[in-house]
Design a protein that fits this description.
heterodimer; A: 483 residues; Amidase signature (AS) enzymes; 8-stranded mixed beta sheet; 13% strand; B: 95 residues; mainly alpha; two-stranded antiparallel sheet; 2 strands
């Protein structure tokens, strides 16, 4: 049962092929047997999962079932879950049982979904390899010596390994699309503000966005139908109608204009990778799409702008972790200063400390204009590139990552080298646009992702384009051997 | 821009982070490299460009000034490191 999609499970449950309790038990057994080699889960909530599954089966028997009733999934450990350990991959929150549910969690609970637990991630969502977790690195199911990507590495690996058919995830600079690409699964980062951030532990508030990791675009649409929508509890949530994302999956894409940014097909991208992405675009041309070369001239400024804005916002957001109200507190503080400094020094990992320090520096007296304000101005230039491009094209396509999954330890010695991993994904977060990664090929038996970039609130078009590609190809059906 | 070790100590102190002395030079290298990366921004002409805080240029919503949350002090303090009589405990601040 472990390679079934959300849509298949939903149909099977409706047909009575098996019960929610049966598939939940089956997947829990698979996790307990195989996750020791992958490390995708931080917490498995077996008891709660079984009670949710039984409740779902009872609701179905009473005639109260909907598409999600009894469907198993799991949450990235960045989403607060009432009474359940919520660590954000950090020692700082290694004792934090959240006192409330994130809106996203509430929505899946209300839809009748069954959560198997909380998934591993880079600490506070800072990382591109899932090597920054206090709970240890996550292995890529395709090659256990390689990284699954990050920061949603646990979500991507868990879906690729067949532990859950879908998982929540978050994306601040590529943290959904990059791990989805490296693990051969489908990842959707919606428009900024489309999904509530309430109860989603903040890293960089103006960039953070929740999204989905699944096998298929159809499943992503099903998750979006649950997650998307306005939430008064999130002051940056956007009040705008939510379409039925499954309704337009099969629309024809004949005549759709695809923009290919020149800047995404340069030397940063190896010939092998380039070939896979070009093959995928040729597939779209066969379906009647037109291709147009475009330019996003400020692409090279996205990483520098991001590494001012994200650290600045994180230095402010993470000031709440002070050892006073929740989380890690050092032993025997001699005064309040010592309590703050040692609790934070002990509770945070190296990458988190680096980013807090970069942000503290950028925001310190005398530097604000040169760093934060400048970066916010450059951010507008980057957004304007996309606004101009979307005057002429319906969708933009390109690679997700410069290379397939790299080896663990390969990029840990130099943080800047790791940052360059997000070169094709980070600009979307700065612009606030939706993006998606769809499996589109392989290099040395490792998955390659195709990135689809949409205009603001054009998630339905991305899902439609992703679905049509998956009707014509079988890359999303390939599963890793040896797991 | 390259940072010296005193600057690294100063930043750590501003950020309330204890950094061991033997790690200062590693932070010095890594933070300097990151600042070098972002220094590319200085060369960009941004005259007259409005800084962008929200991708959709949204502004804060206002709501009626009414109570929307009930008091959950006991519930929230259950997860605190140290509390007494409804207060959070920290080392003595005022002598």
């Amino acid at each position: 049962m472990h390679n079934k999609t959300i849509a298949e499970i939903s149909r099977d449950l409706a047909a009575g092929t098996y019960s929610s309790e049966e598939i939940t038990k089956d997947l829990l057994t698979r996790v307990s047997k195989l996750d020791k080699d992958i490390n995708s889960f931080i917490t498995v909530t077996e008891e709660q999962a079984l009670s949710q599954a039984k409740a779902a089966d009872a609701n179905r028997a009473a005639g109260n079932a909907s598409a999600w009733t009894g469907v198993p999934m799991a949450h990235k450990d960045i989403f607060c879950t009432n009474g359940v350990l919520t660590t954000c991959g950090s020692k700082m929150l290694s004792n934090f049982e959240a006192p409330y549910d994130a809106t996203v969690v509430t929505k899946f609970n209300d839809a009748g979904a069954v959560s198997l637990g909380k998934l591993n991630m880079d600490e506070f969502a800072m990382g591109s390899s899932n090597e920054n977790s206090f709970y240890g690195p996550v292995a890529n199911p395709w090659d256990k010596d390689r990284v699954p990507g990050g920061s949603s590495g646990g979500s991507a690996a868990a879906v690729a390994a067949g532990f859950v058919p879908g998982a929540t995830a978050t994306d601040t600079g590529g943290s959904i699309r990059q791990p989805a690409a490296l693990c051969g699964v489908t990842g959707l980062k919606p428009t900024y503000g489309r999904i509530s951030r309430y109860g989603m532990i903040a890293y960089a508030s103006s960039l953070d966005q929740a999204g989905t990791i699944t096998h298929t675009a159809e499943d992503a649409a099903m998750m979006m139908n649950v997650m998307a929508g306005f939430d008064a509890k999130d002051s940056t949530s956007v009040d705008r109608d939510v379409p039925d994302y499954t309704a337009t999956l099969d629309n024809s894409i004949e005549g759709m204009t695809i923009g290919l940014p020149t800047e995404y097909f340069r030397d940063d991208l190896s010939a092998d990778m380039q070939q896979q992405v070009r093959n995928a675009i040729a597939e779209y041309e066969k379906m009647g799409a037109k291709v147009k070369e475009i330019s996003l001239p400020n692409t090279h400024l996205a990483i520098p702008a991001y590494y001012v804005i994200a650290p600045s916002e994180c230095s402010a957001n993470l000031s709440r972790m002070d050892g006073v109200r929740f989380g890690h507190r050092c032993e025997d503080p001699k005064d309040i200063e010592d309590l703050y400094c040692r609790s934070r020094g002990e509770g945070f990992g190296e990458e988190v400390k680096r980013r807090i320090m970069v942000g503290s520096y950028a925001l310190s007296a005398g530097f604000y204009d040169a760093y934060y304000k400048k970066a916010q101005q450059v951010r507008r230039l980057i957004k304007n590139d996309f606004v101009t491009a979307f005057n002429d094209v319906d969708i933009i396509m390109g690679p997700v990552t410069p290379t397939p999954a790299f080896k663990r330890g390969e990029k840990t010695s130099d943080p800047v080298e790791m940052y360059l991993e997000d070169i094709f994904t980070i600009a979307l977060n700065l612009a606030g646009l939706p993006g998606m990664s769809v499996p589109c090929g392989a290099v040395n038996n490792l998955p390659v992702g195709l990135q689809l970039i949409g205009n603001f609130f054009d998630e339905a078009r991305l899902l439609n384009a992703g679905h049509k590609f998956q009707q014509a190809t079988d890359w999303h059906l390939k599963t890793p051997t040896g797991i | 821009m390259a940072l010296d070790q005193d600057q690294v100590r100063k930043i750590a102190s501003l950020a309330r982070l204890q950094i061991d002395d033997n790690q200062i030079s590693e932070y010095q290298t890594n933070l300097s490299n990151i600042l070098h990366l972002v220094d590319q921004l200085a060369a960009v002409n941004t005259d007259g460009v409005e800084p962008m805080a929200h991708p959709l240029d949204a502004v804060q919503r206002l709501r009626a000034d009414v109570v929307t949350e009930e008091n959950q002090r006991e519930h929230f303090q259950k997860i605190a490191p140290a509390t007494a009589e409804g207060h959070y405990l920290v080392p003595r601040v005022v002598e």
